[in-house]
Design goal:
With 191 residues, the protein is mostly beta strands. It has helices at residues 38-46, 163-167, 186-189, and strands at residues 11-12, 17-18, 23-27, 51-58, 67-74, 78-79, 82-83, 98-104, 107-113, 119-124, 129-132, 136-142, 148-155, 172-177, 180-185. The protein has one domain: Jelly Rolls, CATH 2.60.120.10. It has three helices and 15 strands. A hairpin with an 8-residue loop joins strand 4 (51-58) and strand 5. The model has no long low-confidence stretch (mean pLDDT 97). The structure holds D-sorbitol-6-phosphate and zinc ion (ZN). D-sorbitol-6-phosphate (S6P) binds next to strand 5, strand 12 and strand 13.
């Protein structure tokens, strides 16, 4: 069998890397507009530009029927009461679904329909998987005290649409309230 990519890889669930594959790093300064508390964001940025998350992607040519996958690692931390998070995206090819599997640490996924009317907060940690249906925006947050690592498997044609989230953030936020992770409406924070 001849393919233009290897069929086997070796990954490290602790460092969040797939051996020999590119690693994208997102620092706090890359997450402008993502966190609800702008003052806390600016204060944190003033103290440095910490790494928030990395993604190591095994991406194959975007042909019908093929799958790609990526390993994500989110550092523990908060901006104000809001946990460190990924930018979040829709798939550019909206029907593309995705499966997330927790590898280490603990966190949640925030799912949201395109009109914002349907939302779910689902656990992501070892022995937990999350199915992200097509047409659903998804963001991952680390609610624990150690790095959260996970793998996401998606159609090679999925692509990322970050603009829709940049224009109109997720309707909900996952915050630490009374010492535990809770999902509340962003609009409630303004009151
Ligand atoms: C790709 C998949 C993940 C994310 C990763 C980082 O479809 O959902 O690999 O890329 O969790 O999140 P984001 O929102 O920065 O792409
Ligand atoms: Zn995705």
């Amino acid at each position: 069998m001849e393919f233009s990519f290897p069929l086997a890889t070796h990954f490290d669930p602790v460092t969040g890397t797939i051996e020999g594959y590119p690693l994208t790093a997102r620092r706090l300064s890359d997450l402008q507009g993502s966190f609800a508390d702008e003052q806390a964001y600016q204060r944190a940025l003033g103290m440095g530009d910490p790494l928030v998350y990395t993604v190591s992607g095994f991406e194959v040519p975007a042909e019908e029927g093929q799958l790609s996958y990526a390993l994500g690692l989110i550092m523990p931390g908060k901006i104000g009461q809001e946990y460190y998070l990924t930018k979040g995206h829709f798939h550019a090819w909206r029907p593309a679904a995705e499966v997330y599997i927790g590898l280490a640490g603990e966190g949640f996924m925030l799912l949201e329909s395109e009109d914002g009317s349907q939302n779910q907060m689902l656990p992501l940690r070892p022995h937990h998987a999350v199915y992200v249906p097509g047409h659903i925006a998804h963001r991952t947050v680390n609610t624990g005290s150690v790095p959260l690592t996970y793998v996401g498997v998606y159609p090679a044609q999925a692509g990322h649409d970050y603009d829709a989230i940049a224009r109109k953030n997720f309707r909900h936020v996952i915050l630490e309230l009374d010492g535990k992770p809770s999902m509340i409406e962003r609009s409630e924070l303004l009151r």
